[in-house]
């Protein structure tokens, strides 16, 4: 296994989606925001899981995300929020990707390009009601939207806006933004333009204002288990755990310097543990001398500057009386970001924006899916996915001996699991086993025979 890895319990993600849909208005559709590699969780995996849970609309920010999502889900309805240029029209039309137009100028350029090409395209339009980022200025939006509608080449399917502070109940500015959006909508309707799909509620607005659900709700951070409050409309749970290993534990005296520039000196005899992770892995330097990690159920402070990787990449401290317990836990993983309702990530991050941290997690990490029947873990082997007809077994490229894989497979079958496939690639395990191949050239049915015979 690599120095640091991510574990995902996809069953919790699916439960989050079910809770959101149950809380929404019956006629409201859930739109899953899947930008930034699904907030660091992995776009292909999350997209497929959401599709299996009934989600049909998705939002991305960049063209490459749209391209990847279309390859993963050929029938999905994809909204592209980021700025697009007229030269992208052939790609958008051929892939049936719906752009969200963000200014009258962009809309006019797109319309003229479509007229020249003799094509039509479906779009949504974003109204800037006060966020100050993207969108048609609300004061002139209706007029400009009607102009685009009259070109005959833009089918305006949706209208949206984004709240800047809707997470607080009774927020006066959010109320004003809602009134501005309604004014634009009413002005369009007065001129005969009925826009069928309206979506204004992001995760924060969904949790506080049911009357803003309209036809669609854009759920991002809430679907991944973050951003809720005790009084929120729906409670969701994190399903990502980020782990690493403790590579060294030692006792040091008082006034002992730690890390680059000795930004921390121990106030008393202390036990230091060195973690096998650093800022190159996404463990932010902002966590220096302030973050927390979880070792053996204990929250332990990060001391000294967070370094690069590998080597001494994070140092934790504890009273000398914790020496024996900390040394005992050296073989256990250290939780950089635990999941579950009992572990509030905010208490570990100490001022670092949670969504910034999870969105920056590196794609090179090993990925372990935890939605399978419980099983032991031997060396680098993991059960990582569950299909309707059984479980898929995965092992890291060339890192695990045939004997260890065989032992784990036998243990699985003895526990009653129906093993249907073996693959050697963590990230694509589900696809490899489902479609009958692996990067090693060992096919789904043959792989199991190879290891057990």
Give the tags.
alpha/beta, TIM Barrel, Lyase, Ornithine Decarboxylase, Chain A, domain 1, eight-stranded parallel β-barrel, six-stranded antiparallel beta barrel, 15 helices, disordered C terminus
Can you offer a commentary on this structure?
- Mean pLDDT is 78; it is low at 310-314, 371-389, 395-400 and 424-451.
- The protein has three domains: 10-219, Alpha-Beta Barrel (TIM Barrel), CATH 3.20.20.10; 240-340, Lyase, Ornithine Decarboxylase, Chain A, domain 1; 372-452, no CATH class.
- The protein has 453 residues and is of the alpha/beta class.
- The protein is built from 15 helices and 22 strands.
- The protein is 32% helix and 25% strand.
- The strands form four sheets. The chain has an eight-stranded parallel barrel, surrounded by six helices.
- Helix 3 crosses helix 4 (63-72).
Number of domains: 3
CATH architect. name of the largest domain: Alpha-Beta Barrel
What is the overall shape?
elongated
**Percentage of residues in helical conformation:** 25-40%
Q: Which structural class do you get from the secondary structure elements?
A: alpha/beta
What's the arrangement of strands in the largest beta sheet? 2-3-4-5-6-8-9-10
CATH fold-level assignment of the largest domain:
TIM Barrel
Number of helices: 15
Main beta-sheet strand count, sense and barrel state: 8 strands, parallel, barrel
Question: What is the name of the CATH superfamily of the largest domain?
Answer: Alanine racemase
Q: Would you report the number of β strands?
A: 22
| Strand percentage | 25-35%
Over all CA atoms, what is the radius of gyration? 25 Å
Query: Can you tell me the residue ranges where pLDDT is under 50 for at least 5 consecutive residues?
Result: 310-314, 371-389, 395-400, 424-451
Q: What does the average pLDDT come to?
A: 78
Which CATH class of the largest domain?
Alpha Beta
Distance between the termini: 25 Å
């Amino acid at each position: 296994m690599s120095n640091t890895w991510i574990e995902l319990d996809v069953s919790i993600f699916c439960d989050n989606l079910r809770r959101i849909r149950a809380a929404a208005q019956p006629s409201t559709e859930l739109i899953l925001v899947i930008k930034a590699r699904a907030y660091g969780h992995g776009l292909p995996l999350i997209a497929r899981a959401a599709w299996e849970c009934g989600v049909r609309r998705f939002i991305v920010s960049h063209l490459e995300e749209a391209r990847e999502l279309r390859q993963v889900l050929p029938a999905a309805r994809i909204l592209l929020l980021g700025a697009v240029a007229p030269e992208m029209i052939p790609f958008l039309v051929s892939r049936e990707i719906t752009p969200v137009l963000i200014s009258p100028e962009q809309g006019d350029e797109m319309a003229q390009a479509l007229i020249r090409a003799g094509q039509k395209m479906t779009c949504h339009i974003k109204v800037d009601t006060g966020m100050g980022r993207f969108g048609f200025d609300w004061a002139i939006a209706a007029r400009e939207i009607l102009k685009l509608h009259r070109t005959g080449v833009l089918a305006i399917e949706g209208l949206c806006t984004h709240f800047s502070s809707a997470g607080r109940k009774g927020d006066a500015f959010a109320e004003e933004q809602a009134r501005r959006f309604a004014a634009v909508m009413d002005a369009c309707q007065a001129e005969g333009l009925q826009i069928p799909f309206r979506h204004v509620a992001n995760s924060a607005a969904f949790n506080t204002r049911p009357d803003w659900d309209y036809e669609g709700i854009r759920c991002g951070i809430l679907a991944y288990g973050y951003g809720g409050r005790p009084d929120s409309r729906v409670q969701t749970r994190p399903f990502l755990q980020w782990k690493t290993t403790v590579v060294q534990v030692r006792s040091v005296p008082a006034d002992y310097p730690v890390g680059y520039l000795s930004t921390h000196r121990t106030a008393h005899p202390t036990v230091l543990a060195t973690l096998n992770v650093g800022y190159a892995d996404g463990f932010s330097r902002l966590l220096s001398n302030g973050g927390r990690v979880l070792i053996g159920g204990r929250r332990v402070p990060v001391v000294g500057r967070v370094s690069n990787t590998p080597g001494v990449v994070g140092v934790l401290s504890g009273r000398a009386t914790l020496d024996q317990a900390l040394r005992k836990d050296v073989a256990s993983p250290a939780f950089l970001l635990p999941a579950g309702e009992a572990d509030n990530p905010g208490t570990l991050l100490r001022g670092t924006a949670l969504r910034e941290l999870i969105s920056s997690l590196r794609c090179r990490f090993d990925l372990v899916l935890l939605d399978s029947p419980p099983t032991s873990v031997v060396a680098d082997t993991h059960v990582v996915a569950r299909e309707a007809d059984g479980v898929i077994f995965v092992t890291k490229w060339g890192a695990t001996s045939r004997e260890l894989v065989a032992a784990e497979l036998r243990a699985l079958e003895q526990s009653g699991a129906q093993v249907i496939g073996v693959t050697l690639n963590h990230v694509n395990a589900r696809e490899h086993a489902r479609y009958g191949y692996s990067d090693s050239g060992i096919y789904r049915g043959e792989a199991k025979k190879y290891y057990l015979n």
